[in-house]
UniProtKB/TrEMBL annotation:
<comment type="function">
    <text>Catalyzes the condensation of (S)-aspartate-beta-semialdehyde [(S)-ASA] and pyruvate to 4-hydroxy-tetrahydrodipicolinate (HTPA).</text>
</comment>
<dbReference type="InterPro" id="IPR005263">
    <property type="entry name" value="DapA"/>
</dbReference>
<keyword id="KW-0220">Diaminopimelate biosynthesis</keyword>
<feature type="binding site">
    <location>
        <position position="44"/>
    </location>
    <ligand>
        <name>pyruvate</name>
    </ligand>
</feature>
<keyword id="KW-0456">Lyase</keyword>
<dbReference type="Pfam" id="PF00701">
    <property type="entry name" value="DHDPS"/>
</dbReference>
<dbReference type="InterPro" id="IPR020624">
    <property type="entry name" value="Schiff_base-form_aldolases_CS"/>
</dbReference>
<comment type="pathway">
    <text>Amino-acid biosynthesis; L-lysine biosynthesis via DAP pathway; (S)-tetrahydrodipicolinate from L-aspartate: step 3/4.</text>
</comment>
<dbReference type="InterPro" id="IPR013785">
    <property type="entry name" value="Aldolase_TIM"/>
</dbReference>
<keyword id="KW-0963">Cytoplasm</keyword>
<comment type="similarity">
    <text>Belongs to the DapA family.</text>
</comment>
<feature type="site" description="Part of a proton relay during catalysis">
    <location>
        <position position="106"/>
    </location>
</feature>
<keyword id="KW-0704">Schiff base</keyword>
<protein>
    <recommendedName>
        <fullName>4-hydroxy-tetrahydrodipicolinate synthase</fullName>
        <ecNumber>4.3.3.7</ecNumber>
    </recommendedName>
</protein>
<comment type="subunit">
    <text>Homotetramer; dimer of dimers.</text>
</comment>
<keyword id="KW-0457">Lysine biosynthesis</keyword>
<keyword id="KW-0028">Amino-acid biosynthesis</keyword>
């Protein structure tokens, strides 16, 4: 259901408030560049520091701007199952095509707890759901066996696999087959994960180079493996540079360099260090972005 290059879009701020004009411009640019889907309010969208009202507004605004031209998959996860259900209900009411739900963080549930968490959401909200596994952020790794258990829920349609392990993605695909779509959660692993059966990526890099990320996925899926590999290595310096510091600090700095948004973010995220900013600028120049 959700395949290709889906951008984990930033949330622009201006003077402490949502910058809807810039967000709308970014969405239009993404769609015109061939991005296959928009993912607001994920990690890259700074969901952790949005108020509930802001979160709801970003989701609703994104749906309004997109106008069904590509899927909108809203981040609605939480470490509270009740809160995740509430956010997912709002997203459904706003008209999204699906919801991206991060594994509960900090409280470190067991595998049984993870299964029950997603099962409760799936049984409460009739909306296509994408499980988001990123143990480096959450402190818990959702195992392939647990993900496979969730295939009993017809609305659990995909997983964003961000463990950093192609082996884990392979096991998910082996266990679930065509029942579940696997999307890369690390831009640098887009090509390797597609090689073992993944169907695309939820990407940070597409914030800067939407056309090339879409082209990479399109090329591989059309059997043009050499072209996809060439694009992978063209983009690889940016894959690395966008994680010189905690995401989304570098991507917001990069978009600011491109004149698309203010670099503003919310504490505890802070402006990029001078040394890393210079390194990022060098990569941006090499990529022809500034």
């Amino acid at each position: 259901m959700f395949t290709g290059s889906l951008v984990a879009i930033v949330t622009p701020f201006k003077n402490g408030k949502l910058d809807e004009r810039s967000l709308g411009d970014l969405i239009e640019w993404q769609i015109s560049s061939g991005t296959h889907g928009i993912v607001p309010c994920g990690t890259t969208g700074e969901s952790a520091t949005l108020t509930h009202a802001e979160h709801d507004r970003v989701v609703a605004f994104t749906v309004e701007v997109v106008r069904r031209r590509v899927p909108v998959v809203a981040g609605t996860g939480s470490n509270s199952t009740d809160e995740a259900i509430a956010l997912t209900k709002h997203a459904k009411a706003a008209g999204v095509d699906g919801a991206l739900l991060i594994t509960p963080y900090y409280n470190k549930p067991t595998q049984e707890g993870l299964y029950l968490h997603y099962k409760a959401i799936a049984e409460t909200v009739d909306l296509p759901l994408v499980v988001y596994n990123i143990p480096g952020r959450t402190g818990v790794n959702m195992l392939p066996s647990t993900i496979a258990r969730l295939t009993v829920c017809p609305t659990v349609v995909a997983v964003k696999e961000g463990s950093g392990a192609v082996q884990q993605a392979s096991e998910i695909i082996q266990r679930c087959g065509e029942r579940l779509t696997v999307l890369a959660g690390d831009d640098a692993l887009t090509l390797p994960m597609m090689a073992v059966g993944g169907k695309g990526v939820i990407t940070v890099t597409a914030n800067l180079l939407p056309a090339k990320m879409a082209q990479l996925v399109n090329a591989f899926r059309a059997g043009r493996v050499d072209e996809a590999r060439t694009l992978h290595y063209q983009l690889y310096p940016l894959f690395t540079a966008l994680f010189y510091e905690t995401n989304p600090i570098p991507v917001k700095e990069a978009l600011h360099m491109m004149g698309k948004i203010d670099r503003e973010m919310r504490l505890p995220l802070c402006p990029m260090g001078n040394e890393n900013r210079e390194k990022l600028l060098h990569v941006m120049k090499a990529a022809g972005l500034v």
